[in-house]
Design a protein that fits this description.
alpha/beta; Rossmann fold; eight-stranded mixed beta sheet; two-stranded antiparallel ribbon; 3-isopropylmalate dehydratase
Amino acid sequence: MPDSPRDRPSFSVTHESDPSDVLIAGFSSFGLAGLTAVDYLVENLDLEQTGYVRAEGLPSITPFKKGRPRRPIRLYSRDDLDVTVLVGELFVPPVLGELLATAVLDWTESAGVTEIAVLSGVPIPHGPDAHRTFHVATDDYHERRVDDELVPPMESGFLDGTNGSLLERGIDSPLGVGVFVTPVHAQAPDADAAVRLVDTIDETYALGVDSAPLASFAADVRRHYEDLAERIEEREPDGASDRMYM
């Protein structure tokens, strides 16, 4: 007997106000660099929660802070800043990434969002010279936002899951999509990788974010994310939620 639609995983976005033109997103993946980076943006920019993404039909988590539960995928913004930040603490397997991306993209299209920037770490073998940020971006996003000298392109490969689906939609639509990626190590969170991502997004959008305190911030959230990293490794034994080659 086939599953009913109610039994199938689904995502939906709820937002309390008009979103900004730009969405910056970080999802739960190996190394947690992107997630740590967007979490730090929320703290450093003093953003307030303005929405969330509801996940139905898949194992979930309920994070909490100072004794108060929170949604696992949250949206943050501020009235005087034209940026909305998505913090995705819930690990979404790559096979369900398209469902999450579609829900986000349907919302961004209806809300008039023009750009999406994703911060992500990739667990690939690398030497010291690769300790920098790279990009994969649609033509329109590249033309508006990316300097190849500062943030070089990834040479070849592929992205899957949520990041790959976001990029694919951006190819044939007016939505500009850029994924900023940096190599990560096994520790969670990889603070050095998160610093690189924060510095890159700050240079891209002139946010005025100081990344210097990020190392201590990462130490403060390390315990919170260690359990999350263990869950990811259990569900992704090969250690990669974004498959990409340099």
